[in-house]
Structures are given as C-alpha cells and as structure tokens.
Amino acid sequence: MIQQINPSEKVTTEVSKLFKVLKINQLLRAANIRKASGVNVQQIFEFIFLL
C-alpha cells in the first residue's frame, strides 16, 4: 500500500529539516533568544515561519 503524505505535513517536515541544516536553534541561542518554560523557542520560530 502506498502511503500518501498530506501536503501541509510535508511542508512542516521540510521546514524542520531546513531549520536543522541551517542550525537555527544554535543561532537563536547565540542571539540570546531563550524562554524559561513552555514551548521551545525553535518550535515558535518554525510556526511563525510557516505562517
């Protein structure tokens, strides 16, 4: 059986891969962008980027 991937899920996956390749999380830390608790800063940044 061929598994179909939802286009929005594919975009989200590709953006996550891109952020890992570009090491965005390390850049955010270097820019001193941090949170004390809650959702990860990288997840918030990815969400804003996807919008």
Q: Which oligomeric form is depicted? A: single chain
Number of strand segments: 0
Q: Percent helix among the residues?
A: 55-70%
Order of helices and strands: HHH
In terms of structural class, how would the helical and strand content be classed?
mainly alpha
Q: What's the Cα radius of gyration? A: 13 Å
Q: What is the count of structural domains?
A: 1
Low-confidence stretches: none
Instruction: State the end-to-end CA separation.
Output: 33 Å
- Mean pLDDT rating: 85
What is the makeup of the main sheet? none
**How much of the residues is beta strand, in percent?**
under 5%
Overall form: elongated
Instruction: Count helical runs.
Output: 3
Question: How would you describe what is shown here?
Answer:
With 51 residues, the protein is an all-alpha fold. It has one domain. Helices cover 63% and strands 0% of the residues. The chain has three helices and no strands. It has helices at residues 7-21, 24-30, 41-50. The protein is elongated, with a radius of gyration of 13 Å. It starts with 6 loop residues before the first helix and ends with a helix. The mean pLDDT is 85.
Topology, pairings included?
Layout: H1 7-21, H2 24-30, H3 41-50
Short description:
The chain is mostly helical and 51 residues long. Helices cover 63% and strands 0% of the residues.
Which key terms come to mind for this protein?
single chain; 51 residues; mainly alpha
